[in-house]
Specification:
Elements: H1 39-44, H2 58-77, E1 83-84, E2 115-118, E3 124-126, H3 133-141, E4 145-148, E5 154-156, E6 161-163, H4 169-175, H5 181-185, E7 194-195, E8 201-202, E9 208-209, H6 216-225, H7 229-236, H8 247-259, E10 268-269, H9 272-281, H10 294-309, H11 318-323, E11 325-339, E12 346-359, E13 362-365, E14 383-385, H12 386-389, E15 399-401, E16 407-415, E17 419-425, E18 427-429, E19 434-436, E20 440-442, E21 448-449, E22 468-478, E23 485-492, E24 497-502, E25 505-509, H13 511-514, E26 519-526
Parallel strand pairs: 1-6, 9-10, 13-17, 14-20
Antiparallel strand pairs: 2-3, 2-4, 4-5, 5-6, 7-8, 11-12, 11-16, 15-16, 17-26, 18-19, 21-22, 22-23, 22-26, 23-24, 24-25
Length: about 525
């Protein structure tokens, strides 16, 4: 509750002396309108009676308030919420059972309107009036302290007074984590560990994500995108996208803030609410209980977020600022012509089409694995340097395509993005099953130099050509096609340490171990020096 703000439901001049006190809040909280009572309703009353505060004098205002209170009766008086500092039930609050990662729905009515969380047992109930579910629960179970999940106000039921106490601020911060712009700028310099309520230590930004049911494809994608500094910083400040009405954008922002929050009650986060938003936005293309491809999910997520948050004037967003580059595509299409009349052979015509195409990620083709075993009756696992398969984009290497028509393609990178996403095409589908290519890709963790292998245009004006990249995230695929799991290797910038993350499992690892697995998606960060 903001300093000097009257309790919800009190009219101007109607605050009693016991309620005129203002309370200092050591941690400033976001100000919300209370959704329990509509301010316009209070001002006009249920019977449509209204008054003009500016035109009525103090004496008339007092008389009018008396008439107003007589007309509204008990319902009007019940809206005047008492505010108290001393609540005898605060010692019953159990932070161990509080979990705000799930959807804000009443556990009985399944409604998301005016939902309160019981701070004693952690369950969600609707309303706080005499006939509400929260009120009934307070009488049946003897649980008296509740927090409104939207306004963050704490009430004692069945007494109905609002509780103002600084000891509850940590619960508000877990419910809705907040970051100032100064805190956001210091995130990559912070080396301090945080401690959960159970005594376990965790690193903000390096927390595990709960695998609800075959949702590791989503977990590794989120963990990788959290290393992209401009994207993370954008979603840590809700004011950057407050104009957007998309539930997916706000759910992604809330998940980002929870992952990087240093005052969590536990050392892991459940992406349940974000998953529900993904299922709805993708029309159940990505669902709980069904394994999906991280490449498809990352592509869909980046494009959907861009469409929701892009500015109407320029059509740009933080997604395109981070990941969008440009390709020049040359397509050769061979057409059969008429016979030349001499030896009966037909004349082949070649049509060449040139076009420019933006991209968010680049797909790399792996060489086919060997068909036969070696002398020791063991399969040879081939290895290929990353720079060899990057030659696909040098403007000279020909790529044969058969869809939508047979053509010869040449690709040339015209503009590099600040963050380069590469994905290895490991899976091919035939008429019978999905097949995986086990080829290992050898890649540098730091100082990937592209200009020696990909001809790049000279920058315009005083811009500097930046062609060196450092790896910040690496998603790997373990097991056979269709029945495997995903892991992510991510870098912590404050100490330049690498961590292996698989759902709730988070452990430090060596940089040399990052390159020894079957990489599937990589995110590189452009060096700015």
């Amino acid at each position: 509750m903001d300093e000097g703000e009257p309790a919800a439901g009190l009219e101007n001049g109607a605050v009693s002396e016991s309620k005129e006190k203002t309370f200092d809040n050591p941690l400033p909280l976001a100000s919300y309108d209370d959704d329990d009572e509509d301010q316009e309703d209070i001002r006009r009353g249920r019977n449509g009676f209204s008054f003009n505060e500016e035109e009525v004098g103090e004496e008339d205002e007092e008389e009018e308030e008396e008439e107003q209170s007589e007309k509204l009766g008990k319902r009007k008086r019940s809206r005047n919420v008492e505010i108290r500092r001393d609540c005898p039930y605060l010692d019953t609050v159990n932070r161990q059972v509080l979990d705000f990662d799930f959807e804000k729905f009443c556990s009985v009515s399944l409604s998301n309107l005016n939902v309160y969380a019981c701070l004693v047992c952690g369950k969600y109930y609707q309303g706080r009036g005499p006939k509400s579910l929260a009120y009934t629960h307070s009488l049946e179970a003897g649980h008296h302290v509740y927090i409104n999940l939207r306004t963050e106000k704490v009430y004692c039921l069945p007494d109905g007074y609002e509780v103002i106490d600084p000891s509850l601020d940590d619960i508000r911060h877990v419910l809705n984590p907040r970051f100032t712009r100064e805190q956001v700028e210091q995130l990559d310099k912070n080396r301090q560990w945080s401690r959960a309520l159970d005594g376990s230590d965790y690193l903000p930004g390096m927390v595990g994500l709960n695998n609800i049911q075959e949702t590791d494809f989503l977990n590794v994608t989120i963990q990788s995108l959290m290393r992209v500094t401009p994207l993370r910083n954008f979603f840590l400040i809700p004011e950057n996208y407050q104009h957007c009405k998309s539930p997916l954008v706000h759910a992604f922002g809330e998940l980002t803030r929870k992952i990087w929050h240093a005052r969590n009650f536990k050392g892991q986060v459940s992406p349940h609410e974000f998953l529900q938003a993904v299922m709805k936005a993708s029309k159940k293309r990505f669902v709980i209980g069904k394994q999906s491809d991280p490449v498809e999910f990352m592509s869909w997520l980046l494009n959907t977020l861009h469409e929701q948050i892009k500015s109407s004037k320029k059509g740009r967003s933080v997604i395109h600022q981070c990941f969008q580059g440009e390709l020049e595509v040359m397509k050769e299409i061979h057409r059969e012509g008429a016979n030349d009349g001499q030896d009966g052979d037909s004349v082949r015509h070649v049509n060449i089409e040139m076009s420019k195409m933006p991209f968010l990620m680049l797909g790399l083709d792996l060489p086919p694995p060997p068909l036969f075993k070696d002398i020791m009756e063991k399969n040879i696992i081939p290895q290929v340097p990353l720079l060899n398969i990057l030659k696909k984009f040098d403007g000279e290497t020909v790529t044969e395509v058969v869809r939508p028509r047979v053509a010869r393609m040449r690709y040339l990178v015209k503009r590099l993005p600040p963050y380069l996403i590469l994905h290895m095409r490991r899976f091919t589908k035939n008429n019978f099953f999905m097949e995986k290519n086990p080829t290992l890709v050898n890649f540098p963790v730091k100082n990937l130099e592209l200009k020696d292998y990909i001809p790049l245009p000279a920058p315009s004006g005083s811009e500097k050509l930046r062609t060196k990249y450092d790896l910040i995230a690496n998603i790997v695929h373990d097991g056979k096609a269709g029945e495997a799991c995903y892991r992510a290797f991510v870098q912590r910038k404050s100490e330049e340490l690498w961590y292996e993350m698989q759902d709730l499992h988070v452990s430090e690892t060596l940089p040399q171990m990052v390159a020894l697995s079957e990489t599937y998606i990589q995110i590189y960060e452009q060096q700015q020096q």
